[in-house]
Amino acid sequence: MENRYATNPQEAKSYTTEKLRDEYLIQQLFVKDELRLTYSHEDRVVIGGAFPIKGAIKLAAGDFLKTDYFLERREIGIINIGGHGVVKVSGEAYELSNKDGLYVGKGIEEVTFESIDPSLPAKFYLVSTLAHTNYPTEKISIEQAEPVRLGDDSQSNKRTIYKYIHADGAKSCQLMLGMTLLEPNNMWNTMPAHIHDRRMEVYLYFDLGEDNRVFHFMGQPHETRHLVVSNEQAVISPSWSIHSGVGTGNYTFIWAMAGENYTFTDMEFIEMKDLK
Questions:
Q1: Which CATH number fits domain 2-274: 2.40.50.140, 2.70.70.10, 2.60.120.10, 3.40.50.720?
Q2: pLDDT in tens, 222-255
C-alpha cells in the first residue's frame, strides 16, 4: 500500500509538475493479478484497483492499516470498469457487469475479486473510507443508479451523472460514489468549477483512447494548476481544490467523496471571472 500524506494549498503553490504528479496522481491502478492500493491522508481514503486474471484476489489489509482485516473499521465502494466479474462477500457472489457497482460495509472479513472470462477480465476500482457502523452489502447496477443529466452541446459539457452510493441510494457512513459519462463530442466536466470544503474527492478517468488525455484542473480558484491524465489514472483532490477537466476526446470518470458533510449538493460554486 502506497502512502500519500495530506498537503496544504500554500505549499502546493510551489510544486513542480513532477511534484504535483507525485502528490496527487495515481498512475498505475490496474496490474494483472494484483491488488494495488494507495492510502491518502486526505480524510483517510484508500484508493485501489484489483485486476484478476488467473484467479481470485483477496482484499487484504496488509501491515499498513494495523487491523486484522481490511473492513474492520472501513467501508468500501466498488465499480467494475472491465469485463464481467464476481465479487464474493463472505462467500456470497455478486456478479458485476461493466459499470456495475457494489457497496460493502464495515465488519465484513472476507472479500474477493474474480474475472468470469480471463480473456475479457474484470477491472475492479475501489474506494474505501472510515466507517462507524455497518450498512448492508448492496449491488447497484448502472440501470439502478440515479441519473442526472446536465450540460449542453454549446458548452461541450453534455453529460449524465449516475449516483451509486449516496443518501438516497445505497447507504454508507460517509462514502459517496458515482460515475459521469460525457456524450460524444463533449469534453468538459464540472465547469463552472466548485469546491466543497468539508469533503475531499477522488477522480478516476477511463474510457480514453490510447493517445487521448484529460487535463485535470486543480488548486485554489485563484491559483489553479493542472495534471495531464492518461486512461485509468486517478487524481486525489483535497477539499481546498477545484476539480474540473477537459479531454482531447470524450471520456468517463468515477467520482468518490469522503469527509464530514454527507450532502451531495453542498458545493461552493466558483464564478468564471474568479478563476485564475
A1: 2.60.120.10
A2: 999 999 999 999 999 999 999 999 999 999 999 9
